[in-house]
Amino acid sequence: MIRIRSTDIYGSGRYGASRGKRLHNGIDIVCHKNESIDAFESGTVTKIGLPYNPEDTKKAHLRYTEITVANGDRHRYFYTDGIYLVDHVVSRGDTIAWAQGLQDIYQGITEHYHFEIMKPTAKRRYRNPVVILKGLGHEFLG
Ligand SMILES: [Zn+2]
């Protein structure tokens, strides 16, 4: 069961929700800090990235793991501490990371990790993860 962060004082975790001048390009999946994060789809780790400027001392520790899946889409799990290095092959359901937690940075936010799907190349760069995850058999709460 996947639960998407509903509106809190910082906004909504739904795909396409307002983020000021831009739209939220993924979904925020409710979790607990240090909870294990499992791969939704098999693929190869193609990046362990930094979502923020490393000089931003409050956020410099945050990471994301990017897994490129069979059709070339990049599944990106943000605010998670990845277990594997680039080129590691993972299977659907494997634990790939732990949730880093955001409540120390954003007091009162609903704890979550961010999941987004980038197309290999396209004008509209992102897919709606809800559609993809439902296609993989996942169910959503609420
Ligand atoms: Zn998000």
Keywords, separated by commas or semicolons:
142 residues, mainly beta, Glucose Permease (Domain IIA), seven-stranded antiparallel beta sheet, three-stranded antiparallel beta sheet, globular, binds zinc ion
Question: What is this structure, in a nutshell?
Answer:
The protein has one helix and 14 strands. The protein is mostly beta strands and 142 residues long. The longest helix has 7 residues, at 129-135.
The CATH architecture is: Distorted Sandwich
Distance, first to last CA:
10 Å
Q: What would you give as the CATH superfamily?
A: Glucose Permease (Domain IIA)
Radius of gyration: 14 Å
Secondary structure: number of strands:
14
Shape: globular
Give the CATH class.
Mainly Beta
Could you describe the 3D structure shown?
The chain is mainly beta and 142 residues long. It has one domain: Glucose Permease (Domain IIA), CATH 2.70.70.10. It has one helix and 14 strands, in the order βββββββββββββαβ. It has one helix at 129-135, and strands at 2-3, 18-19, 22-23, 27-30, 36-38, 43-49, 64-68, 74-78, 80-82, 89-90, 95-99, 112-118, 126-127, 140-141. Strands 4, 6, 7, 8, 10, 12 and 13 form a seven-stranded antiparallel beta sheet that branches. A three-stranded antiparallel beta sheet has the order 5-11-9, with no helix packed on it. The longest helix is centred in the last third of the chain and has 7 residues, at 129-135. The termini are close together. It binds zinc ion.
